[in-house]
UniProtKB/TrEMBL annotation:
The lineage of its organism: Bacteria, Bacillati, Actinomycetota, Actinomycetes, Streptosporangiales. It comes from the Bacteria. Residues 13-136 form the Mycothiol-dependent maleylpyruvate isomerase metal-binding domain. This is TIGR03086 family metal-binding protein. Pfam families: MDMPI_N. It comes from Actinomadura fibrosa.
């Protein structure tokens, strides 16, 4: 099964596990619930997250990316949530497994379109982990973000997020002090205490 596909990048593998576990934990009736991504419901966040992971794979392999625009998710699934998510996570992990720590600039689907291997794999991890958090809080699950994960993701966020804000990919940062998880979420423009 695809769960055995590991990228070799610990942070990315942890983020994929978080996203996978949270998606499995969504109750059947919660797929239309609102999320911290104010214009998207749970299904749409899943579609976006899966599409982004496939885009990270595609940037490395040259294989086709998502067949839909991850920034305009339909909210309608063809098949089960796992049938959408698993191929994307498998493809992303397999692609990153081909990239060593000492590789040169690596293609990514976000500006500036190449990053160091550590930063690029971290960017894919950031995307997966934060959308896992979005889905978790929208569906009453515990946060999948650990303090350790948040500490590793914050420098990645600070390196890549600013250019993405102009496209609406992230809200403006929230000025606040908190723990490691809160600091990451605030930087990404998310309220750690968000409720539906």
């Amino acid at each position: 099964m695809s769960e055995t596909t590991a990228s070799g990048w610990t942070l990315l593998d942890s983020a994929h596990t978080a996203l996978r576990d949270v998606v499995r934990g969504v109750p059947a009736g919660d797929w239309n619930r609102p999320t911290p991504c104010s214009e998207w419901n749970v299904t749409q966040v899943l579609q976006h997250a899966a599409g982004d992971q496939l885009a990270y794979a595609s940037a490395i392999t040259g294989e086709p990316g998502p067949a839909y625009n991850p920034f305009a998710p339909s909210g309608t699934l063809d098949g089960t949530p796992a049938e959408l998510l698993e191929p994307a996570l498998t493809a992303c992990a397999a692609a990153w497994a081909t990239i060593g720590e000492d590789a040169g600039p690596t293609p990514v689907p976000v500006p500036p379109n190449t990053l160091s291997p550590a930063l690029g794999s971290g960017a894919a991890a950031l995307d997966a982990a934060v959308h896992a958090w979005d889905i978790a809080v929208a569906t009453g699950q515990p946060s999948p973000l650990t303090p350790e994960m948040a500490r590793e993701l914050l420098p990645v966020a600070k390196a890549i997020v600013e250019p993405l804000r102009q496209y609406g990919a992230f809200a403006a940062a929230i000025e606040a002090d908190g723990d490691d998880v809160d600091d990451l979420l605030h930087y990404l423009g998310r309220d750690p205490h968000w409720k539906a």
